[in-house]
Fold this protein.
Amino acid sequence: MNEETKVKKPVGRYVAVASIVLFFALGYVLILVPKGQAASHEPAAKTEMKIDGTLEADETDVSSKLPGRIAKMYVDEGVQVKAGQVLAVLEAEELDAKHDQASAGVRASEVLVNQGEIAVNLEGRKAEDQVRQARAGVEASEAALGMASQKLAALVKGARPQEIKQAEQGVAAAQAQFDTAKKTYDRVVNLSNEGVLAQQKQDEAEMAYRSSDAQLTAAKARLDLVREGARKEEIIAAREQVRQAMAGVEAAKQTFQLAIDARSMVDIRSKDVEAARQKVAASEGTLREVEAYRKQTRIVSPISGTVTQRMSRAGEIVAPGYAIFSVTRTDRYWVEVYVDESKFAGHKIGETVQVELPALGKMLPGKIVRVLPSADFATKKATDENGTFDVRALQMRINLLENPPELATGLTARVHFGK
């Protein structure tokens, strides 16, 4: 026996043992594993079944948000109503009185606003006129002060050289005119005495002589005044005029400032108008609140449907939240049934089923819209050869896809699954 033969014998034994173990394992699986578990990868078939339930629909209690006495009822049980339709009306005498009071408050506030706006406009125009007049007064007073100051300066300074020279020239001209008139008068007098000229010519010459003498005297007096300058009394009077002009300027400035202050009062009046507008807004808010309460006295249906119950009568007092009517929605019915989970195989949400209504002799389509586990009391227990297990009932909701007018809540509805 060589080395190669010695190595091959142990390997053959190992292969034989492994084959025996695999054979027994395969037999165990085929015998002990349930056939359902072995084929669990195949999709489950739908279970056909019929389960009875009751036709149901949404029911809404209609109540009042306000306490009050029912003044009138417009509908009774069995009446079809629309969403928003008035079903009953509460008495609203107190609310009507509050509404009138709030309306009067709004009108009174609006009057105050209008009066305030008129006052602001009038005071604004008046204030602007006063400001313009006061500004003009300041300008006039300052101009008068300037003229008085110039006059005082001229009196204090005295006549200018040009004025003195002009006065001297006036005296010289008056002197020349006087000399000529005097010579003419002397010749006329001599000729008149000799009887050569008439007395009238002498009178005319004398008049011209005396006139030139007066003009000469006046020219000399003016020259004396110019050379002498203003008198002390004139300077004192001019200074008084300057003082009065300065006081006038100060008074005009004060008047101007008062006009500016009066114009600022217009802004205060505007604030009063704005406060009045806020009162209008507050009054309007109160009015809207009362109108909202008045609207709540009209009891309206929140949904379209049938009045299935009337809990109150006209003349009764109802409390807030107390149900007055019950309205059942008639455009969407459904059925709720309970299905053992062992029979639920193959069914799912969205599946279409048939709903039989024995009382009406109708078969209507429906759709599974909800599947929920039921309460614990709906759980049952069973035992088979593989051991014990719990079976739960599933709550299933089926919405009808058609809602004919003869439907009513409480009718027996038989749901056909897998049909």
User: Anything to note?
Assistant: The helical segments are 3-32, 35-38, 93-157, 161-193, 199-228, 232-296. Residues 1-40 form one domain.
